[in-house]
Amino acid sequence: MDGLIKGLIDVALGHGDDREEESGPESREERSRSTWSEVVSGEHDKDEGGGIDRRAHGCNRWNAEEPSNLRHEDPPRRTQKITNEYGRTEGSYEQSQWSRKEEDSERNNDDGWETVGKKPQRRQYKVQTEKWHGYKRPANEQEYSDEVDIGIEPSDEELNDLSQACKRLWELDINRLVPGKDYEIDCGEGKRVRQRGDVAEGSLFTWLNEDVFRRPTFSRFCSLLDNYNPNQGCKEVLTSEERQEQAAFIEEISRTAPIKYLHKYLASKRIVSENVQDFKRLMTRLWFDLYGRGGSSYSSSAFEHVFVGEVKQQGEQEISGFHNWLQFYLEEAKGRVDYQGYIFPRRRGHTPDSQTQVLTLQFEWNGILKSVSSTLIGVSPEFEIALYTLCYFVGGEDNYIELGPYPVNIKCYRFGDRIGSVFPIAEC
C-alpha cells in the first residue's frame, strides 16, 4: 500500500518523468546514433530488393545539406530524401544524432549567406553561397574575372630548374592570404606522428575574413567540394551541372597568373599544346576525370583525392588525401573535423605558429583519424593546381623546392597517366 501511494504521489508531482529523462534519453540516443562511418559504408541503407543503389546504399553525398524546412523526429530513425536547391535528389541519409547536431550548428539566412561554425573558442563566420548556383550554368552564361596582364614568361633559369619555377609561382600568387590580416590560426600543442589523443584545446582556424569567399577562384573551388562522396570504393556519378561547374572553375583559374605561367612553362617544354583551349581541356581531364581506386572503377579523381579527401574502407577505416586548407576550414567550421595538434617539425627551432603557412597536422574527420597530413595554408586554389600540375609533368616523386621562406618536398605519386596523390611535406 505504501508503495502504491508513493507511486501515485510521484506521478502527480512528475517525478516519474524526471527519472525517465535521467535514464531514457541516453539509451534512446544510443539506439538512434548513426555514425558517419556506418552511413558511408552502407550498413544502414540496404536495398531490400538485393540491388545496389548508389544514392541509397551508403554512397550518398554525405555532406548534402538538408533543406531548412525539414525537422528531425525522435527515434525510430527514418531515411529522408534530400532535394537540393536545383530540384535534384542529392541522396538519402539516416537521421541521426550527428545530423541533428549539424543542423543545429548551421543557420541559413535569406541574404544568400550560410553561417557555419558554432563551437567554443571560435567566432562565427559566413560563407557566401548564392553565386554557386550560377556556376552550374553552361559556359556561355558564366561571368568570369578579367584576365591578368602581367609578365609571366618563364626565364631560362626557371625552365632548367623546377625549384626556381615553383618559387616564381609563389611570387605570382597574388591571391594568397596574409596571416593575421585575412585569417588566424591557433596551432595549439605538438605531438609525435604515432601519438594519439587531442592536444589542441580549440580549433585550428579561429577566424577567416568572409571577403575571402567573394574571390572568384576561391568561391568556385568551394562550390566543387560537395560534388563527391567520401567512400573510396563508391562509384561517382557526375551530373551535367557538376561538369559545367568543373569547366567554369578551370576557366576561372586559367585567367590567373599562376595558371598562365604554368601553361607557358609546359608549352615551352613542348609538354602541352600552345593552344589555350586545348590546355584547358587537358587540365579538366587531369584533375576531374574519374578513375578506379580501392577496387572500384570511376570511384575517384585527382581533385577528389587531393583536395576533398577519401575514406579507405579496406580493413580499419582511415582518411586518405585531404590536403587542402579550404576544405579543412569548411569541415572544421561545420564540426566535422576535429583538429588534434600539429606534428613536431623535423628540425628544432621551427615550431609552427600563427604565421605558419606550411603545416603538418593530425585530425579526425567525422571520427576517422588522419594520423599525419600536411597542407599549405592560405594559398589560392589556382596556386595549388599550378604547383601540383607542374610537379606532376616536370618533377619526380620527390620534388625539393622552396616556397617563399619554406623548404618543402612536393610528394607526387602517379596512378598510371593520372595524378594519384600530391601533397607538400614540410622540410623544416
TrEMBL record:
InterPro entries to which the protein is assigned, alphabetical: ENDOU, EndoU-like, EndoU_C
Keyword Transit peptide among record annotations: no
Limits of the EndoU domain: 158-428
Cofactor(s) this protein requires: Mn(2+)
Molecular-function GO term, any one: hydrolase activity
UniProt-listed PROSITE patterns: ENDOU
Region annotated Disordered, chain positions: 1-128
Keyword Hydrolase carried by entry: yes
Alphabetical UniProt keywords: Endonuclease, Hydrolase, Lyase, Manganese, Metal-binding, Nuclease, RNA-binding
Annotated Basic and acidic residues bias: 41-56, 68-77, 99-110
Family of the protein in this entry: Belongs to the ENDOU family.
Subunit annotation: Monomer.
Name by which UniProt lists this protein: Uncharacterized protein LOC107430408 isoform X2
Organism expressing this protein natively: Ziziphus jujuba
